Amino acid sequence: MNQIIIHVDMDAFYASVEIRDNPTLKGKPLIIGSMPNERGVVATCSYEARRFGVHSGMNIKEAYRLCPSGIYMHPNFDKYKKVSLKLHDIWNTYSTASEYIALDEAYLDVTEKAIDWDGARKIAETIKRRTGDEVGLTCSVGVAYSKTAAKTASEEKKPDGYFEILDADEFVNLLSDRDVQALYTVGPKTAEKLKAHGIFTVRDIRSNQETVKHLLGKQGVWITEIANGIDNRKVIPYRPEDAKSISRELTFQEDVSDFDFVKEVMLLLAMSVEERAKRVGLHGKGVSIKITYYDMRSVTRSKSPVRCESAIEIYNEAVQLLAQVDSERIRLIGVGIYNLYGNVGRQLSFEDIFDEFKLSYDKELNEKLEEIGKRYDLDFIGNKVQLYNLETLHRTVEYMRKHR
User: Fold this and answer.
1) CA 240 to CA 318: how far, in whole Å?
2) DSSP state of 230
3) Same domain for 398 and 253
4) Distance between CA 306 and CA 129 in Å, rounded?
5) Residue 297: pLDDT band by 50, 70, 90 thresholds?
6) For helices 363-376 and 390-402, what crossing angle results, to 10°?
7) Which of 12, 10, 80 is nearest to 46 (CA)?
């Protein structure tokens, strides 16, 4: 036996956490994301909302059209992160390597601890039981011989499901007559290309492998392998130092044409980027910005090498990059750093970061924060930590936009 992999996927995670904490929401179509009168998308939704056709990633206004009677809530990411850490503590008990795909999803290599398939089944059962007993939530678990098969298995019996795929033959037999998008590497655009050439099912991929390879190149090679049940990838634990960039984006609820205001927002985003980088002991050698205009055109600008260890350095470089783009109405602004480096040792706690921030007092940053604060009658200096919370940052920027 080469490897035994478990894929754990929480059921409607954000929505389930809110229902757990407020049982009156149980059985109701709950939609986590933006409010119906705001710009944004659905982050997740309860299974009751899904019956109306609502799904993750859907434009919030389309969700409201489909489900006007739904209960709409903003996500509370701080709460979800705390719950996620508890889940990780449970999952890590049974794996030699854990690869987290999101707050609520992970691949676990249980080969050594399970020893055999019976052992893997017991681990899966224990994970499901402990998730319910200790966290008050349900999860779906897939046990399989590969990462792709484990992911497929966890989706097979959702919610609160269990399924196993023990070898490539089982995988192929399960998916052969399903739509090409049953393979997780095949998205809508790829599926459209395949179907334009008469390839509609996984079986069709296996029967037309050379066509798929010719049509999609390297991606086509990978898809044909997956269609045949071949996936030898290992579970690779995430390491902060492997990240390619750290960024923060914000979408305005109304398009913004005042670039002085955009610069103020960029300062707050730069502070958030610095905090996230310090948390994992990383620094960047390059700064980038991303802008999405009113007509959904997106542009990026970047510069490297530059010094960008502090928020004010990131901000100053970002402002220079902003001068290189067209002065049109902006829908989204993003600031980031890339070409990351640094020795990752002990990860800093939130309190550590704030203490370091105070000790490394930055006069220029505080002068700018004080200047902006006076304009809006807000205490940015005394509330730096709160601004690292994404929801608080969004609310603050919207207040600033309305009172500019």
Assistant:
1) 23
2) -
3) yes
4) 50
5) very high
6) 50
7) 12
Amino acid at 146: S
pLDDT at residue 258 tops 80: yes
Based on the fold, state whether residues 83 and 64 are members of the same structural domain. Answer: no
In a domain, 233, yes or no: no
pLDDT at 358: 42
Per DSSP, the three-state class of 225 is helix
Q: The domain that contains 55 carries what CATH number?
A: 3.40.1170.60
265 and 309 in contact (C-beta within 8 Å)?
no
pLDDT tens-digit series, residues 10-62: 999 999 999 999 999 999 999 999 899 988 889 999 999 999 999 998 999 99
For 108-155, how does the pLDDT look when each residue is reduced to its tens digit (9 = 90+)? 999 999 999 999 999 999 999 999 999 999 999 999 999 999 999 999
Asked if the structure places residue 367 within a domain, the reply is yes
Helix (H) or strand (E) holding 252: strand 245-256
| CB proximity list for 13: less than 8 A, separation 6 or greater | 44, 80, 103, 104, 137
* CATH number assigned to the domain comprising residue 196: 1.10.150
Distance CA 331, CA 218 (A): 35
How many domains are there within the chain? 4
Q: Note whether 249 and 379 are same-domain residues.
A: yes
SS3 content of the chain, % helix, strand, coil (to 5): 50, 20, 30
On the question of pLDDT at 343 being above 90, the answer is no
Judge whether 210 counts as a catalytic residue: no
* C-alpha span between 385 and 356 (Å, rounded): 12
Contacts of 352 (CB under 8 A, 6+ apart): none
Range of the domain at 194: 179-227
Mean pLDDT of 197-225: 96
First to last CA, the chain: 64
Do 251 and 388 sit in the same domain of this protein? yes
The pLDDT of residue 356 is above 60: no
pTM for the structure as a whole: 0.77
Q: What is the DSSP string of 138-153?
A: -EEEEEESSHHHHHHH
Q: In angstroms, rounded to a whole number, what is the distance separating the alpha carbons of residues 103 and 167?
A: 28
235 assigned to some structural domain = no
103 and 59 fall within a common domain? no
Find residue 289's DSSP bridge partners: 301, 335
359-379 average pLDDT score: 83
| pLDDT > 70? residue 72 | yes
Residue 20 in 3-state DSSP?
A: helix
Which of 18, 48, 105, 313 is flagged as catalytic?
105
C-alpha span between 89 and 47 (Å, rounded): 27
